[in-house]
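Same chain as my last thread, 307 residues:
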Amino acid sequence: MRQELKDVLFEQISGAVRSEKPTTPDHRPNHNAVFTISAGKVSCDDALAPNVVRGDEFTRVLEACDLEGLKPVEFLLHTSDTSVDCHSCESMLTFAYCKGVDQKAITVPNPHITMGWVDRHIRTVLGNDRDYKDKLDKSVFAGALTGSGTRAEYCESVLGSRLHDAHITGSLQDFDLDSFPHLREYYLDRKLRIRDQLRYKFNVTIDGNALCYCRLYWQMASNSVPVYINRMKDQIQLHDYLLQPDVHYVETTIEEWPEVFNFLLTTTEGQEKCEYIRHKGTEFVNLHFMDSAQDSVRIMEFVLRHL
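reply #2:
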């Protein structure tokens, strides 16, 4: 665990609220699990947290920590994708996977990190990637139809393009199909494999319900250029504090992307920028994500010992 990540965590810990105990039912918002650590033991009450799997997974991470000698502590874990609409962190000690940038919650590794998905995806990249020069001169996006519909909006905008492939994959949920009249044309009833996305020089990330939990990280591990379209700047995750736009990924919008793509692909300056971003992304992954599931335990030990 590197010092810059410790600095991020320590700043959040210093600003976190500890004024109320979260065990009173009237003070326990939905989507929150209550954790208690005492005498080296972890207990979890997730009766009001519909995502029980996440409560169980966080318990596993905590139980893997060295808890001996810790003073008793009680806190909430917001188990939804993001805590942006949750106000518990203003009065109680709260952990969140993804939070509003001004919220006082402490960001912790998200489930895709703790469960080893990020590690597994990175291994897939390392075992299936190809040289940048051997990739298609195109961009690709593939993701489920979640959140505000931005993903489908992007797919609509590039429909029919020879340079930008874009697909909605998996469940269509309950979206109003009238809002996306061509949805059936770019819908896939399966996921697009990472190895297939690695064929493209540009891999696009678009947020869903919250910031993407792992897509950007495995893209940064590849020889492709990560492109973040319409990033939700009102939210943040733990490692995002250390990421910089146009250093670790290309930041752009749906409207600007075709012009940015042309610049990156066809100009000397653009190609130099691509090489720089690919290098910085790989460097970041090597520093922070080569054993991220195990690092999650070390991160939580650090947090608990500095509360």
